[in-house]
Amino acid sequence: MTALYLLILVDSISATVLIPLLGPLLIDQATLVFLPGAALPLRNFVSGLLVATYVLLMLYMAPVLGRLSDQWGRRPVLLLCASGLLVGNVLAGLAIDAGSLALLFLGRVIGGATAAAQSTAQAALVDRGGNKARLLSYSLLFSSLGFVLGPVLATGLSPFSFAAPLHLCTFLTVVALVLLYRDRDREAPVAARRIDWSAISLWEGVTCFRDAAGDAAVRGLLGGFILMQVAWGGFFVFVSVYLMEAPRLDLTLSEVGLFMAIIGIGFCLSNGLVQPMLAERFAMRTLAVTGLGLNAATMVLCLIATSAVQAYAAGLLAGITINIAYPSIVTMLSDRVPPERQGWILGMVGSAAAMGWAISSVVSGALGGLGHALPIGLAAVLMGGAAVGMMVAGGMDFRRVHGNANE
């Protein structure tokens, strides 16, 4: 499973590594690489557009590639995703070296369009059998590690060269591709190798949500998952600004960086230890509802914190609780469709996550002008609403279960 976990890691690193570089590349006059003669509002707009391009293409293409993997097989689609990821990283690195904004956009377009590696790799892990909840939780552990490592690599390597983090991503993607190619004899068989192109459409990124809305087994769960992503996205984007400007806290940039790193530590602790341990004893729905409710409480704790230590503790709990809920919901969604639709549902998960973050960026950005505490307060309310919605979607189950705990 090394190839699958490495590809998930590289996919997550590639999605986040560029974000810390956008400031020096497009905003800071001392290090500006792109649009040196443009006004600051335009450079801010282009910075946001580079992030949105990747997210929106991932939203649209993840269900298409997921459906394709159900028919064609996981490995060919994983190779396609990894190849697109490689090209995207190569182009982004070259774009920074050459100062070409058009080439950077092209790299993000290709990378976003093939950014379904995580959901397809998760489907491949499920195909191999075993404890589904544990496999999905470990896959999210590597995703969380990539989420943390992306910004760390960007800030650590950028003093040498702004393109250096992208070149490292290129190297890691090549390693993942080699391991995937060597793994060609160990893929679990799929129901059909002949592709029914009539069942796959480029409109899949739109129609998949219509199909999900008509599927009673997944509709409520997916709606709660999207609401969770909207809430978490709003919190994650604005909490750093709030902590720096709150009169009771007034954290420095380095202290805020430590806060974000502590959230990442919470991600890893939860996915690698806490959630798999709890999944052996409690039903997935119990963990989902409890994790969402506790996460809403940690957001409130961030708002009322009066010291950096209190904020750090709230950040650690936020990282742990959100990742108690996340893999539990993904497991429930996976359980509600047959094996031949695993690629579709896990592609839907990736697309729904991207949709949630896109919505939260727009809504929280509009509210941020009224005060940076407001988006966080709204995020806490929405996260609580997601907990209630998850409780209603099929009823609450507090049974202690053993083994797989997949309900």
- What percent of residues adopt helix (DSSP H or I)? over 70%
Q: Based on helices, strands and strand pairing, what is the structural class?
A: mainly alpha
SS elements, strand count: 0
Q: Examine the coordinates and then state which fold CATH places here, giving the name of the CATH topology of the largest domain.
A: Growth Hormone, Chain: A
What does this entry look like structurally?
With 407 residues, the protein is mostly helical. The protein has two domains: 1-187 and 197-202, Up-down Bundle (Growth Hormone, Chain: A), CATH 1.20.1250; 203-407, MFS general substrate transporter like domains (Growth Hormone, Chain: A, Up-down Bundle). It is built from 15 helices and no strands. The radius of gyration is 20 Å and the shape is globular.
Q: Main traits of this protein?
A:
disordered C terminus; 407 residues; 2 domains; Growth Hormone, Chain: A; single chain; mainly alpha; globular
Show the helix and strand layout:
Elements: H1 2-16, H2 22-27, H3 40-72, H4 74-98, H5 101-113, H6 117-127, H7 132-157, H8 164-182, H9 204-213, H10 216-245, H11 253-279, H12 284-304, H13 308-335, H14 342-368, H15 373-392
Helix pairs in contact: 1-6, 1-7, 1-8, 3-4, 3-5, 3-9, 3-14, 4-5, 4-6, 4-8, 6-7, 6-14, 7-11, 7-13, 10-12, 10-13, 10-14, 10-15, 11-13, 12-13, 12-15
